Every structure is written in structure tokens, then in C-alpha cells.
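Researcher: Here's a chain I'd like modeled. Treat it as a single chain, no partners, no ligands.
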Amino acid sequence: MTVHLMNPKGLPKVPTHQQVAVATGSKLVFLAGQVAWDADGTTVGAGDLAAQVEQCYLNVAAALAAVDGSFDDLVKLTLYVVDWSGDSMGQLVEGIGRAAARLGVTPAAPITGIGVSALAAPDLLVEVEATAVLD
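Model: Modeled as a single isolated chain. C-alpha cells:
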């Protein structure tokens, strides 16, 4: 495995990810920000943050599979969430959990969440950017 994930002593444990990823592979993969569009470009889950997070994660999985990668190869995720509030966390965690169940994975790569005022289209609530390291 090229990615070792960990929660060092002195840092809080959070339910959605580990705090540190150490990557030793030789192939860096940078994914464009994935939004809640299906393969036809139709928005999935209009008005539903959890559904959009789920679709974003499914899109990340599809992009990784295209380069023979998987969630095990992720070293960093950045989530851009429109109009972030404390109430958004539950929906975010729900969406990640639903995607993990559908994909049969345990997403654990470090995550940074950033609140933004808008994304590329008005019906998009979240965008997920990912970096992976493969052997």
C-alpha cells in the first residue's frame, strides 16, 4: 500500500477522516473538482447536500478507477461547500457514509472543508477535489 493514514497523538479524532496521510508511491494523481453531475451532466440531488456529496464521491471513485486507483490511494480531499453552516456537517457526514456504503470503502484520507459562496452552476452545493498516490 502506498498510503499510510494515521491520527497522531495530540490531534482530535474526527468521524470522516484521518488527520495525516503519508504517501510513498511514484504516480501522483490530481483530480479536477468533482460535482454532483452524473455521466450525462445532469445534476443529482438538487437541493440535497447529502445526495450531492454522495454523487461527488462516486465521481471521485470513477475517476480513480480510470487510472487503476481506488479510495485506498487517496492522500487528500478538499470539499468546497456552498453556504456552509454548522447544520451542514450532519448532511456532509451522511453523504460520505452513503457513498462509502455504495462503494464498499472506508474513506479516511485527510479532508479540508471550505465554505464558499457559489460553485460553477447555481444548483451545485458541493465540489470535491482529490489527490491520490499510486505505485
